[in-house]
Design brief:
It is a single chain. By secondary structure, the chain is mainly beta. The protein has a single domain, classed as Immunoglobulin-like (Sandwich), CATH 2.60.40. Helices cover 7% and strands 54% of the residues. It is built from one helix and nine strands; from the N terminus they run E-E-E-E-E-E-H-E-E-E. The strands form two sheets. Strands 1, 2, 5, 8 and 9 form a five-stranded mixed sheet that branches. The protein has a four-stranded antiparallel sheet with strand order 4-3-6-7. A hairpin with a 4-residue loop joins strand 1 and strand 2. It catalyses: 5-hydroxyisourate + H2O = 5-hydroxy-2-oxo-4-ureido-2,5-dihydro-1H-imidazole-5-carboxylate + H(+). Its EC number is 3.5.2.17. Homotetramer.
């Protein structure tokens, strides 16, 4: 079993990005989980289950920035990950700005 969580930080404001819709899908595009970041910018329990091979996290950044009344270059961020079912936990943070983003494997 694999556990997937995420955290989104708005690096312009230095605050958690609240209300970002996130979708997890497998390589075939089947949606496995949906969530929205909480008041701390986190989705602690996005998915727990079998996960091996390529999966994608899609962050709906357009919805977030529209709520902030800020224009955006990247209306979505898609993070493709090659998951190993023997790894019990993946935490994928997203550092977000209207005209850039960065991600890494967290702990």
């Amino acid at each position: 079993m694999t556990h997937i969580s995420t955290h989104v930080l708005d690096v312009v404001t230095g605050r958690p990005a609240v209300g970002v819709p996130v979708t997890l899908s497998d390589a075939e595009g089947t949606v496995l989980a949906l969530g929205t970041t909480d008041s701390d910018g986190r989705i602690a329990d996005l998915y727990t289950g079998p996960a091996s091979g390529v999966h994608r996290l899609r962050f709906d950044t357009a919805a977030y920035f529209a709520a902030q009344q800020v224009g955006v270059l990247y209306p979505e961020v898609v993070v493709a990950m090659d998951l190993d079912n023997t790894v019990p936990k993946y935490h994928v943070p997203l550092l977000l700005a209207p005209f850039s983003y960065s991600t890494y494997r967290g702990s």
